[in-house]
Amino acid sequence: MADICLVVPPSLVLSDERTFMHLGILKVGAVLKHNGVPTDMLDLSGVKNYLDVVETYAKESVTCTFGITATSPQMPASAEIARVIRNHVPDARIILGGPHVTLVNAATKKETARSSLGRAGRAFEKLRSLFDGLVAGDGEIAILRMLENPALGFIDADDRKSDLYLKSSELNLMPFPAREMVDVESYKYTIDGVRALSMIAQLGCPFQCGFCGGRESDYLRRVRLRNTESVVAEMRHIFETYGVRGIMLYDDELNVNKNMVELMDAIARLGDELKVEWRLRGFVKAELFTEAQAQAMHRAGFREVLTGFESGSPLILKNIRKNATRDDNTRCVETARKAGLKVKALMSMGHPGESEETVRETEEWLLSIEPNSFDLTRITVYPGTPYFDHAVPHGSLEDTWTYTVDGHRLHSLEVDFLTDFLFYKGDRGDRAGLNTLATFTDYLSAEELVNLRKETEDRLRAKLGQPYQTDMAGIQYEHSMGMGLPDNILRSA
Ligand code: B12
What we know:
The structure is a single chain. The chain is an alpha/beta fold. The chain has 2 domains: 4-171, Cobalamin-binding domain (Rossmann fold, 3-Layer(aba) Sandwich), CATH 3.40.50; 188-464, pyruvate-formate lyase- activating enzyme (Alpha-Beta Horseshoe), CATH 3.80.30. It has helices at 23-34, 50-60, 75-88, 99-113, 119-130, 142-148, 168-171, 218-221, 228-242, 260-274, 291-300, 314-320, 326-338, 356-369, 386-389, 446-464, and strands at 4-8, 39-43, 65-69, 93-97, 133-137, 154-157, 190-191, 194-199, 202-203, 224-225, 246-249, 279-283, 302-310, 342-349, 373-378, 392-393, 400-405, 408-413, 439-441. Strands 7-8-11-12-13-14-15 form a 7-stranded mixed sheet. Strands 2-1-3-4-5-6 form a 6-stranded parallel sheet, sandwiched between helices. Strands 16-17-18-19 form a 4-stranded antiparallel sheet. The longest helix has 19 residues, at 446-464. The N and C termini lie far apart (55 Å). The model is unreliable at 423-436 and 472-493 (pLDDT under 50). Cobalamin binds at residues 11, 13-14, 20-25, 27-28, 67-69, 71-74, 95, 97-100, 102-103, 135, 138-140, 142-143, 200, 203, 212-214, 220, 250, 252, 377, 382, 424, 477, 479, 481, 483.
């Protein structure tokens, strides 16, 4: 009999949900296990009849406490799951943790500070009405606190002053994600043909990109580094437990770590000791990327880096608050190539000030640098992004919010995250329950953005000789962490 059942809802936005496991909830699971709390796991990633699975579990088990993890696009499925549990286990206690609640809470705090309760506050209240417990930020210790206090309705661990917010030194002491709680073999990903698993070595990104979630959240904004020994120990564990030498590092940017070269050298030494040649992939921040970093990455086993360049337009780079100029981005590509690293360019569009001309500049820049691969997404305005948190009511359009930077505007609709799906690219409207929601700029309607994105990607793929992959596994994951909508979604300015 389990004391708690952890639930990973499906991710209907992803074309293959069994590529990367959700490490966050597996970290929570590891702490529960470490503390001897009997824990079940329902990993519903890619499970079509997931509500049947939940119903069967709820009917057959005596577990009354459930812990669900969710990003914003996982919320509609999470809400359904909560309703099914409630139908069958009337005295269930359902706790929600993960990025969505963390970001809605961060956005609500921002609103409250400005005494202007609005769409974030409404989204937060909806969560409160559906779930018995909400956990914002780090879940490792917060889950234990929740279990100790059955009446506790909300924990804000997304606050560096909270004792539940893990310091860098404490991250070193945490158990590795309990990957064994899911069916590891069912997750398929390769790097250079080598089987790979994912890992997260550091938390937080200090920059202020307008489209990125968590710029007001200690949890997502403040850089927290594990020490080199701890990171290397997890890589050893992955290799010795699963025989896997490919690792996708999901740190926001590996090179915000000032000791990155030292870390890379330690990884290379571990490879020598284990007699394995690592195959690694990860993200770097363009303007911070140096030749020494690139060479060290190559020595460690990287053959490719991913960078969120986002745009080829100087105006858009400025409006995003990207911190990198187009020249920085070009130099980053050259630095990588010189060290033998391929470059995946993560691009996005639909930012404030986006027009046909700025999209053309993006296209031209991509053609000039000839990335080894690229991704072009349309951004979506999620809570906790500056585009959401700093927006004000549009004025004349109903349920529409407007973010302004240097006179350039981005408009977004108010959304019910418990029912509405937000997609960022692709033609995925054929899947059940997809709604039509959007963002738009002063120069491009939602429809124009949809068409322009598709036409631009089509043209780029033809010119760069990089056809769409028919095997979707793994490709939709390579996003810019920029959010966007499906191409069937329309809304006019
Ligand atoms: C890896 C990653 C991915 C991988 C996901 C792999 C997977 N299967 O989950 C891929 C590339 C597929 C991906 C896709 C997307 N991602 Co992503 N991704 C990340 C990234 C970089 C790291 C996630 C991670 O491992 N974090 C580390 C773990 C430890 O943190 P965690 O998951 O938040 O878990 C902790 C707490 O939240 C909490 N917690 C989590 N679950 C639970 C449950 C309970 C019960 C409790 C108590 C606590 C708790 O405890 C955990 C330990 O402290 C984050 C940014 C970031 N640095 O976190 C973005 C991020 C999560 N992604 C984001 C987005 C927007 C997306 C996409 C929508 C695509 C897009 N266009 O950007 C899709 C949606 C995917 C989906 N599942 O539906 C946003 C989320 C925004 C939001 N509002 O939800 C983030 C925060 C990026 C950002 N800063 O904007 N992503």
